[in-house]
Amino acid sequence: MLRCPPRSARSLSRPGGALRRLRHLVTAVVVTALAATTLLTAGAAGASPARAAAPWTPKPAPLSTPWTDRVPVDHPLPEYPRPQLTRPDWANLNGLWDFAVTSRDAGQPTTYGERIRVPFVPESALSGIQRKITANDRLWYKRTFTVPAGWDGRRVHLHFGASDWETTVWINGRQAGAVHRGGYDAFSYDITPLLNRGTNTVVVSVYDPTETGGQAIGKQRVQDVTPHAGHSIVYTASSGIWQTVWLEPTPTAHITRLDMVPHLEDDTLRVTVRGSTAATGAAVRVTVSTGGTTVASATGTVGTELSVPLPGARLWSPDDPFLYDVTAQLTGRAGGDRVGSYTGMRSIAVKDVDGVRRPVLNGRFVFQTGTLDQGYWPDGIHTAPTDAALKYDLQKHKDLGFNMVRKHIKVEPQRWFYWADRLGLLVWQDMPSMDSGKTPDSAARTQWESEYRAVIDQHRSSPALIQWVDQNEGWGQYDQARIADMVKAYDPSRLVDNMSGVNCCGAQDGGNGDVVDTHNYVGPGNTPTEPVRASVLGEYGGLGHRVTGHEWYLGGGFSYEDQPSPSALNDRLVGLLDGIRENAMPAGGLSAAVYTQITDVENEANGLMTYDRRIVKVDESRVRAANRALIAASRDIGPPVRLPVEQYVSLRVTTPGHTDRYIRHHDGLGYTEAVDSGSSELLKQDATWKVRPGLANKLCYSFESRNHPGEYLRHRDFRVRREAGDASALYRADATWCPVRGDGGIRLSAANFPGQYLRHIDAELWLARSGGTHAWDDPRTFTEDTTWSVEAPWAP
To answer: Do residues 648 and 706 make contact, with C-beta atoms less than 8 angstroms apart?
Structure first.
């Protein structure tokens, strides 16, 4: 049905000046909108006899969310779907459509025996279908509509937010443009030549082979749509239309996109207005305003970059997500196309901060702490039940103190990005991968790269989006370095991660991009520092806790480390965050970390919330405080602790009453023992260590035995010992220690276990965590026992 523009448009405005200035246009179409609503509703009712014969009801969801029962039957997701390119006239075609499933190669059906609630996929409960779709199936959608009379003389466009995967559209029996291939990008057709004066019929055919094809699928897999065991990290497929379908009238010469890039270097907003063929080279004016007051404007032509001066601009950040209103209008003739939008002024780059490569937002390093967000729903699968639900997950990130979200292996509707922009969350956007079990052929590669560029174009003006993640853990990997260069050239205003999880699952690092990204479960661990790229942790955590009554499949929840209680989950999570703040960030050079994950998903029970979003498993105030402390510490981080590399030292105990004791090895194990000038030469040598650059992280250190060259102080099974290396990554990590300042000395944390420290207790050396579950984790005198004084060597 036609949505009333005043309500939809106003809801997008912040502070709202650009859209409010369209009110005089909106008022003129209200009467038309009301009339069109009646016409469109009448058109929907005048469908095939099979439709009238098939009553529609939603199916029961495996888990209901707080929004499941709030989804309207006739006009779900009524909000304006494209917040960064708004016009006052539009018509929402979401709602009940005729539906049929045929064999893959069948032609259009003559009857449609079912109805489906668009835009929910047939695998979902909210669609009213809820059954498995396979590579042998073809989906068919049909409905009627009437174009409002007030649109006469304008071009009418049919828009699809997304449809997975191969979509063909007919209007009144004639095909509308080319077949669209892609599951995550928006696409449109100018259907003006195909329209009738009265009732029109649209038919949509979708073929989705999911993992049997070669296209981008992310974590979708063909499987039973009802809960079942297994499939821990892949989920139910989403086939067909899964985002809003809508109509929009425009002039023949019209604007198609605004590419907006803030340039803080010279206090300008660079804007390229893209347009239809008829608008190429047309004169255009871009105006930036706030609260209805014009701040600046610039004129130019469609297709060329304009510079809008914004000296002293209020900068966008997670702490202050300020948005300016933007309008663009073709000015060459009266009544030229006019669109509304918004922007945020911010910069993102990588530079040296106290000798460490760091990502900097608006010129300053701010640690990015976020979660992995899969974007799945038990009732709508890929499609959130309502706009409020779409916003909810992002708001929970803010409530929990996170300042970043990694949108994992999925691309959300444009309204999701609007909420991220408005709420203030930094976004890492993954390009959904191809099947992890295949090497893509040339056709699949061409398609994947084409769809990636389309996704970049669609979201390139979002201020929240700061980083593209090309590939993940080697899934469908190829040409990593070339693709990273391609993405950086296509969108130089953002950071590029060529491979998330270079240390996992056969992944290969392209060696380029702006960050080097490892995964570490449970972690958090540390990503080795580099001289050019910033070190980030693309995934860690995965702590699990099942909540009875809120499981997708009873007892089927997977996690990387189950927690026996909410209190244990809170303690463990806060401990991980504290470890990053105290060690991985200042000592290991870590600059960002992504916790797995914000919600449970199907058979994964490692979310901070249950899959139905009804239970927040953690103490929000504790987690928020830990995140805020981490972010605050990053603003004044200072240079890392430096030790005398390639020199011999001895490490002395600082615990009162034991300050004559030093770290030594004996029969391969680590101890402390009193050493003085009268001690034996063997003891003095055992208590002397050569400081080497960290075997696993050059910002940290490794300690080589003085009298056993090639053997290092390392932890294994928590016990600290002197041991020869085996060239494995595990050994190098176990033998690498990252120092932070302590009271009267330094504290040494394990490079792969930030928050766990080298500790002496009862003269033995252990890797310990304060308040942990082992005897050596005793919190009494923990800080003193984990603080060491670097002294002159006993055996030079």
So the answer is: yes
Other beta carbons within 10 Å of 411: 29
CA distance 479 to 499: 11
Q: What is the structure's pLDDT at 555?
A: 87
How many CB atoms neighbour CB 450 within 10 A? 13
Residue 359 in contact with residue 514, Cβ under 8 Å? yes
Please tell me the distance from the alpha carbon of residue 17 to that of residue 289, in angstroms, as a whole number. 7
Work out whether the CA dihedral 36, 42, 46, 52 comes out positive or negative: positive
CB 493 within 8 A of CB 510: no
pLDDT at 461 over 50: yes
CA distances from 213 to 181, 303, 316, 334, 445 (A): 12, 36, 41, 49, 12
Residues 6+ apart with CB under 8 A from 541: 521, 522, 523, 524, 560, 573, 576, 595, 596, 597, 606
Cα 778 from Cα 655, distance rounded (Å)? 14
Helix%, strand%, coil% for the chain, nearest 5: 20, 35, 45
Distances from the Cα of 216 to the Cαs of 482, 614, 744, in angstroms? 18, 31, 55
Contact 116, 96 (CB under 8 A): yes
Segment among 104-108, 227-231, 661-665 with least mean pLDDT: 227-231
pTM for this prediction = 0.91
For residues 496 and 501, give the distance between their C-alpha atoms in angstroms, rounded to a whole number: 14
Sign of the CA dihedral with 443 first, then 448, 451, and 453 last: negative
Taking the C-alpha atoms of residue 327 and residue 333, their distance in angstroms, rounded to an integer, is 17
Q: Which residues are paired to 619 by β-bridges?
A: none
The long-range contacts involving 176-182, CB below 8 angstroms and separated by at least 24 positions, are 181/215, 181/447, 181/451, 182/215, 182/216, 182/447, 182/450, 182/451, 182/454
Distance, in Å, from the CA atom of 198 to the CA atom of 172, rounded to the nearest integer, reads 11
Preceding omega of 246 cis (within 30 degrees of 0): no
For residue 401 the two structure tokens come to 């103190």
Q: Which one-letter DSSP state was computed for residue 59?
A: P
Is 419:390 a contact under the CB 8 Å cutoff?
yes
Strand partners, 243: none
Mean pLDDT of the chain: 92
Q: What does the alpha-carbon distance between residue 740 and residue 218 come to, in Å, rounded to a whole number? A: 40
Beta carbons within 10 angstroms of residue 454's beta carbon: 17
Look at residue 416 and give its three-state secondary structure: helix
Contact between residue 137 and residue 121 where contact means Cβ atoms under 8 Å apart = no
Tell me the per-residue pLDDT of 503-552, one tens digit each, with 9 for 90 and over.
Answer: 999 999 999 999 999 999 998 988 999 999 999 999 999 999 999 999 99
SS3 101: strand
Structure token pair of residue 629: 């402390």
Rounded Cα distance between 675 and 652, Å, is 9
Average pLDDT of 482-493?
98
- SS3 string, 618-684, reads CCHHHHHHHHHHHHHHHCCCCCCCCCCCCCEEEEEECCCCCCCEEEEEECCEEEEEECCCCCCHHHH
List Cβ neighbours of 214 (8 Å cut-off, separation of 6 or more): 434, 435, 438, 440, 441, 443, 444, 447
Q: What is the DSSP letter of 604?
A: B
Distance CA 289, CA 753 (A): 49
> pLDDT confidence of 232, banded at 50, 70, 90?
confident
Question: β-pairing, 543-544 with 137-146?
Answer: unpaired
